[in-house]
## 1
Amino acid sequence: MHVLVTGGAGFIGSHLSAKLLSLGASVTVIDDLSAGDMGGVPKGVNIIEGCITDSASLSNAMQGSDVVFHLAAIASVPLCEADPAWSDKVNLQASLEIISAANCPVIFASSAAIYGEPVEIPIAENHPISPVGYYGQQKATIDANICSLGPQSTPACALRFFNVYGAGQDPSSQYSGVLSIFIDRASNGRQITIFGDGEQTRDFIHVSDVVQALLLTGSSLVESGVSSPAHASSFNICTGSPVTLNEVVDVISSHVEGDVAVSHEEGREGDIKHSSGDSTKLQSTFDWKPETSLTDGLLSLLS
Ligand code: UD2
């Protein structure tokens, strides 16, 4: 099986590539290293250093693929806001090209950002799509495009990632999630800053559970093509068990030596208060459930 992982040098992509290799796949990664790090790509992966907006690099990467996991994106809300024309090229135009050019199934990394401020919690896949900002809008457009594919099209699905965390998420990067920042600071005796009162909730999902969801939907599309229940469909990738930042800090505090210093700053502009997904659709369609509890996930990062 020849597998292409776009954005394969990134946080999720490198975990996926390692798992695919261990399953015996031949893995190609295309990554422009704007956020990824080739150091995280396991030995044995065929690496193409290039941007998905470059048609020649992309078609070279896609050649001979049996399945494409399309994870490459400008995955930062502020960066997309700063350069919407560029993020349109990367997140939107290149994604459209991948879906239309692929002669094989495509699994697209969508995002909980497409829901915007929730009007109903937990958020199921039929929650209104109301993204705030370019990043969410671009993800929403590709997600909708996939959900409207017909039976003659490329087999494809969209996975809507909630707050993914795990080893290898660079805490110093502006792409980093709050957990990697908190863990890094607490384990180095540095102060944690909570934006707002810490009562905001997030649905944190461990990267190994995300990889499992990618593999299950990918293999279903490979085996059954457009007859797969994943085809032209979207799935929330989340635990359904939201936690507050204050709870996160409590868990971290009880597992590091010494006190964790916490300061509060004003809430970040544009932040949503509560986010909690419903993953019933994925669980009832495939044999998937989140396996890593937040406590176990945090502990593995602290040890
Ligand atoms: C995530 C994505 C964002 C967008 C959004 C869509 C990341 C890093 N962010 O934002 O790109 O897709 O989902 O809903 O993937 N916080 C602190 N202290 C810190 C850092 C963060 O208190 O040092 C707070 C932050 O203000 C927010 C919460 O932690 O209330 C989570 O922040 P985040 O950036 O990890 O994730 P989120 O859901 O806001």
## 2
Amino acid sequence: MKRRKDILGLRELEAEEIDEILTVGLSMKKLLKQNIKKLPHLGGRSVITLFYENSTRTRCSFELAAKYMGAHVVNVSSATSSVQKGETLVDTGKTLDAMRSDVIVIRHPVGGAPQLLAKTVRAHVINAGDGMNEHPSQALLDMLTMRESFPTLAGRKIAILGDIGHSRVAKSDLFGLTKLGAEVTMYAPRTLLPTGIEHMGAKICSSREEAVEGADVVMGLRIQLERQHAGNFPSLGEYAKFYGVDETVLRYAKPGALVMHPGPVNRGVELTSALIDGETSKIEEQVLSGIAVRMAMLFLLTKEEIA
Ligand code: CP
């Protein structure tokens, strides 16, 4: 990977860099599948996770990824830190920097917060999700999971359905997938489509069926109730019926199309329970890919200093 201090989004990564992370991530995943969880790649480094929003998958998998490669890991949550006493993000960053942290992994409800932190600190910064902006490690793990089924993503069709407007995952997936040559179709209520998304490379469809027709992958998105303003859609039942992924719409996809969701999933809303637990569901596989791809990110970001 070209010399980078930080990984803040897929908008800025080049296709070759994404490909390298996926290649290393696939090797890491093979080791994880053999239950190998003791690697030397980050020996003696310190990784701090700094989370201003709730998380299960992202925080735990960054922690495990770092620990499996021999790093010291400290988890800081805004709820129990000096943020509650009024400390600013910049001052918190300077404090963690003064402790000689090597990598800070940050999740923040405000888009752009990781960029601000990255400018302030000497440590490498990884964006673990910022507001409605980007969630690069999620998109990388999604692509890694797809790459296990398809040797190349070029020419593959990925349909993304649901709350695209509030979704940092959808934006990072769009940037990454189109850079690797995939076609991305999207369908959402008009109120949940961000302005200008079609200029970022997405094909916006006028029905679920059009979006899913011939797709290799069908991805549902979590309805982000915490970021909603009232009135974006009439009810959860209607959202599920018209914008969710169910068996009826999946018939339009290619036979055996992968069913994916970044999690956490609202069962029966974004996806039917049968599809979540079905044979073509990759949701649990995505979780393991999350550790593997985050191992790759941490290793590639710090490797020249370690060598
Ligand atoms: N997909 C995802 O970011 O999940 P968490 O909020 O549990 O980290």
